[in-house]
Design brief:
With about 160 residues, this protein is α/β, with parallel strands linked by helices. It has one domain: Nucleotidyltransferase, domain 5 (2-Layer Sandwich), CATH 3.30.420. The chain is built from 5 helices and 5 strands. A 5-stranded mixed β-sheet has the order 3-2-1-4-5. Strand 4 (about 65), helix 2 and strand 5 (about 100) form a beta-alpha-beta unit. Helix 1 packs parallel to helix 2.
Length: about 160
């Protein structure tokens, strides 16, 4: 099974693709979709949608996992990220993917074993779990890989996390 993990954003959308076969997990690809703050919001959302469609078309994932939003103190930023997250989910749904969402606490618990783990601890565990030479960069991509790994570990309970 190929899982597309998404770390949602408007300026930077992290993505990571893993292949999970039983207990074996292999990293296929990772990266970021970036948009310019100088572009209008509609253009940024359109660009994210196009890029998401391209990634899905190229790698043909079976499922998509996305991080739930945590509320930001900057309301304007939170609303824009929420809009982008909607586009990211829509890209998956339009491509007939089942979409699942996980809280940051659930992701940290699955990857590190502790829901309040620090960002660098999660990144180190991603590196270790996938037997990589270095932590994937940028951070958004590493976070997206962690989302995909979280989903692969909890696959037997996945119906609990399905976006409804």
């Amino acid at each position: 099974m190929i899982i597309l993990g998404i770390d949602p954003g408007i300026a930077i959308v992290g993505y990571g693709l893993i292949e999970a076969r039983g207990n074996a997990v292999k990293l296929l690809e990772y990266g970021c979709i970036t948009t310019s703050s100088k572009s209008s919001l509609p253009n940024r959302l359109s660009f994210i949608m196009q890029e998401m469609r391209g990634i899905i078309k190229e790698f043909k994932p079976n499922e998509m996992a996305i991080e739930e939003l945590f509320f930001n103190k900057n309301v304007k930023t939170a609303i824009q990220v929420a809009q982008a997250r909607g586009v990211e989910i829509l890209a998956g749904v339009e491509s007939a993917l089942e979409v699942y969402e996980y809280t940051p606490l659930q992701i940290k618990q699955a990857i590190v074993g502790y829901g309040r783990a620090e960002k660098h601890q999660v990144q180190e565990m991603v590196k270790t779990m996938l037997n990589l030479n270095e932590i994937p960069k940028p951070d958004d991509a590493a976070d997206a890989i962690a989302v995909a790994l979280c989903h692969s570990f909890g696959n037997k309970f996945k119906d609990l996390y399905k976006v409804k």
